[in-house]
Specification:
Elements lengths: L8 E2 L7 E10 L5 E9 L7 E8 L8 H12 L4 E6 L16 H16 L3 E10 L1 H10 L6 E7 L12 E2 L2 E2 L1 H14 L5 H4 L3 H11 L3 H7 L5 H4 L14 E6 L5 H10 L4 E6 L17 H13 L12 E6 L13 E6 L7 E9 L2 E2 L18 E3 L26 H4 L3 E4 L7 E5 L2 E8 L5 E9 L5 E10 L18 E6 L3 E5 L4 E7 L15 E3 L5 E7 L15 E2 L5 E5 L2 E9 L4 E15 L4 E14 L2 E17 L2 E13 L3 E12 L2 E13 L4
Parallel strand pairs: 1-27, 4-5, 4-6, 6-7, 7-10, 10-11, 11-12
Antiparallel strand pairs: 2-3, 3-5, 8-9, 12-13, 14-15, 14-26, 16-25, 17-24, 18-23, 19-22, 19-25, 19-26, 20-21, 20-24, 28-30, 29-30, 30-31, 31-32, 32-33, 33-34, 34-35
């Protein structure tokens, strides 16, 4: 049966006995060394086995130690040498990390794979896997074509660093840009462990704090598509990837469109899998159902690294969880639905169907829609949304640190222009990327639109299904944006994120349009009125015809992993979103709490403390009052080691500029040993 949520089963007996090697230094071509932790099946020392590498900047020694133990010990127990590598400038590796997805990072990955293939315990076949950053660089390193790399698994990643990442969406600056910059600001300031690198740890630490840079500054300096983003975006050179690819995502994650594009454009053997999950490995997936991802990955590795016919390539190219209707909520344990499969992508089972928009209506079952009146003969619907639209949007990328999913859309709809269908007389299934075509004009040179497709139940509750954003100056190009000419009419297309959804009988589809979506997307420089001409607009849906093959899909196994890391908890994690409205000052603040607690890792005796808070505020209806602030606390403590690091980042604006302010303070044994401030003014570039 398909798993329906619940805990992951712990497996403590495996076919192979495994020895853990706490640290090995892997030499790079320039003499630098990368730190690696290895799970080595004892059999490999007699009969070499394939190796699987995960290569990320999130500290193998402590921060990801628990996840690594659960995943890599499991795969190693089934006959793979598993190697978890700290990237240059992170964890216990040499160097300084100055940006994400650099050419240096990719060359280091190539060198690490070559080193693995040459070891006496490796048979020369290497796989690469990872989630998020590790999914990104699995694709990027694969495009470098290292000879020993035979296959990859890329989870929650992107092939397009500008249009489908945490920085920009539809040419709009994302709030997650600040959030992700904060994550890396904190990580880049952390020291290596003295027990691994010895007495040089303090010099390495100071080098990182002084020279890693403020990534928020450089990400905001590049507000349009350019070589800065495209150099490491594999959508620029799909054909460079010559090894098989398994691409995986989740509907609550921010990166699911990548899976669909990779299935369409890659020319190698490939598979795609999209569940209901957020930014998590699928065996720990929330919302559920979680699946036996580690068993599924073994089927993939056995096929491509050991030459065993596991049947995995006989199954549909793309599998996805078709979500069924559910009341709106900011968190779910599970999303009801079913697995569907497609033999190829794009699929012959899916047709793009156009539905015309009338005044406040979606003309479903009343023709195919599209422009049908001449300019000058149709009335416009005026739209100018309040800043508050977007406070129920949830996070661009859900980390299952709930409540970070979109809530009931009815409050949002009060500040939006809405188009609703009649109640459905029969179920409607969609799978793919919906799109909206608008004819519009605007009274200002700069504006944005957010579009949301929702499932409205008979009781009126509205659940967001998918959404899209467009900075209207990017209507024709992300590389060469142009301001709007006030009151000139334009025709624009706004794609929405991919989704598989079934709308039931008696429900309505609702298309909601707003000129703000704060703080998921940064506000334009000033309020703008957009006039939409509905008779020349259309909603385009990827409608799917169900097939019998859906009922013949094999079930996934129940979730499993290796025994958990032994820890002692001093204070538990806390996750919450709080909305503060001061009716006297007219200030509204969204506070995001991501406190990951205080715990001791028993096998290395290290106490770890991690906490992040974010505040996104505005005052009244002043678009230039938009302000994001983040604060992080990190500490590591043992009898021989006591360090604390604090960061603070602020992003604000006026009509012409963004203002960046950041602070870093580091302490050793309760004495402040390092302090640095950053101040930067960055002109708004059609943003």
């Amino acid at each position: 049966m398909n798993p329906k949520g619940g805990t992951v089963s712990v497996v403590d007996s495996f076919p192979y006995q495994v020895r853990e090697i706490e640290n090995v230094f892997i030499p790079m071509r320039d003499g630098a060394q990368l730190a690696a932790r290895i799970w080595l099946p004892e059999e490999a020392e007699r009969t070499p086995l394939p190796a699987i590498m995960e290569y990320i900047p999130y500290r193998k020694r402590d921060i990801t130690r628990g996840r690594d133990a659960a995943n890599h010990a499991y795969l190693a127990g089934h006959g793979y040498v598993c190697v978890r590598v700290d990237m240059r400038g992170s964890g216990d590796s040499d160097g300084v990390l100055t940006d994400e997805y650099t050419q240096q990072e990719q060359e280091d990955g190539v060198d690490a794979i070559a080193w693995l293939a040459e070891q006496p315990w490796c048979d020369g076949n290497v796989g690469m896997m990872g989630i998020s950053w590790g999914g990104f660089n699995s694709l990027q390193v694969a495009a470098k074509q290292p000879p020993a790399l035979k296959a990859i698994i890329s989870i929650c990643s992107s092939d397009d660093l500008y249009a489908d990442n945490m920085h920009y969406m539809g040419g709009c600056l994302l709030g997650d840009n600040l959030s992700e910059a904060t994550v890396m600001f904190a990580f880049n300031t952390l020291p290596p462990d003295p027990q691994i690198v010895g007495n040089r740890w303090r010099d390495m630490w100071f080098d990182r704090m002084e020279n890693s840079g403020l990534w928020l500054e450089q990400w905001i300096e590049h507000q349009r598509r350019s070589a800065y983003w495209s150099t490491s975006s594999v959508n620029e050179y799909y054909s460079a990837i010559q090894c098989p690819v398994y691409a995986i995502g989740g509907w609550a994650d921010g990166f699911t469109n990548t899976v669909l594009r990779l299935m369409q454009h890659l020319e190698v053997p490939r598979k795609g899998l999209i569940g209901p999950w957020g930014h998590k490995y699928p065996h720990q997936g929330i919302p559920g159902p979680a699946i036996g991802f580690l068993q599924e990955s073994l089927r993939w590795w056995d096929y491509w690294l050991k030459g065993k016919d596991t049947g995995i390539m006989d199954e549909p190219m793309l599998r996805a969880w078709e979500q069924h209707s559910v009341p709106p909520d900011t968190s779910y344990d599970e999303r009801p639905g079913r697995w569907i499969g497609e033999a190829s992508w794009p699929s012959d089972n899916i047709s793009m169907r156009r539905y015309g928009l009338g005044p406040y209506t979606i003309a479903m079952g009343e023709g195919h829609g599209g422009p049908h009146q001449q300019e000058g003969h149709e009335s416009a619907l005026a739209l100018q949304s309040p800043i508050s639209v977007g406070q129920s949007a949830g996070k661009w990328c859900s980390y299952a640190a709930t409540p970070d999913l979109p809530g009931d859309q009815r409050e949002e709809d009060g500040g939006s222009l809405i188009f609703s269908s009649r109640q459905l007389a029969e179920p409607l299934e969609i799978f793919g990327m919906p799109m909206v075509e608008f004819e519009l004009s605007c009274d200002k040179p700069q504006a944005m639109l957010a579009v949301r497709l929702s499932d409205v139940a008979p009781d009126g509750k509205s659940t967001r299904v998918t959404y899209g954003l467009l900075n209207l100056s990017h209507r024709d190009s992300d590389a060469d944006p142009e301001p709007l000419v006030p009151h000139r009419r334009y025709r624009v297309r706004i794609p929405m994120n991919g989704i598989a959804q079934c709308f039931p009988v008696g429900h309505q589809l609702r298309l909601s349009v707003s000129t703000s979506y704060w703080p998921l997307a940064w506000l334009p420089p000033e309020p703008a009125q957009v006039d939409i001409y509905p008779d020349s607009c259309a909603l385009v849906l990827p409608e799917r015809t169900p097939g019998e093959e859906d009922t013949r899909l094999p079930d996934f196994d129940e979730p499993e992993e290796a025994p958990p890391l032994e820890t002692h908890t001093f204070s538990a994690s806390e996750h919450n979103w709080l909305l503060h409205r001061d009716l006297a000052t007219k200030e509204s603040t969204l506070e995001v709490i991501n406190d990951q607690g205080h715990f001791r890792i028993e096998d290395i005796g290290t106490e770890v403390r991690r906490s992040t808070r974010e505040w996104y505020s505005t005052v009244n209806d002043d678009f230039t009052s938009a302000r994001g602030e983040t604060y992080t606390e990190r500490s590591f403590k043992r009898d021989d080691w006591n360090v604390e690091i604090y960061t603070r980042s602020i992003l604000s604006c006026d009509e012409s500029n963004f203002f960046v302010h950041a602070q870093l303070d580091a302490y050793e044994d309760d004495y402040r040993v390092f302090s640095k401030n950053w101040e930067k003014v960055i002109p708004r570039d059609h943003m």
